[in-house]
Amino acid sequence: MIFILAFIPSVCFSNTDIREMYISAVEDFSTCGVALMPWGSSEWRPDEAEKLYVEKARVNQDRMRSEIDKNFYTEANLQKLFVELTDEFYQETSDLTKQIQALATDDHDLIWRRLFDLEKDARLIRDKLASDFRLHAEIIKMCSNK
Q1: pLDDT for the residue 110
Q2: φ, ψ (nearest 5 deg) of residue 129
Q3: Which residue among 1, 23, 110, 124 is least crowded, i.e. fewest CB within 10 A of its CB?
């Protein structure tokens, strides 16, 4: 009985830890992911909500190259940064992802609700980056230095 009482809370807390660790990893990835999203690989396609941002980011890129650093803000470099960023994210979260797959449906629902809240923040970030190419450029530089 003592074993059961000691074991059950640790299982519940470990689920919480896994969820929080994954959500935290997504939060850490989010700003850089949003900033570099328009240069995603050929497998990635923006959804309807992201298309206007992607178009504006391409305009931003032209301004970044002409007004800030023509050698850094190239299509090839931005794509490389996106691939490195996403590869690193997937490597860092691969164990968490496997553990999350084993969680109960309620845990998945909680994760998706929290990720939906992150998406609300991402929309605000996309709007800000679309309207301010210098901020966009600065964030991309910051992401490349991580």
Answers
A1: 82
A2: -65, -35
A3: 1
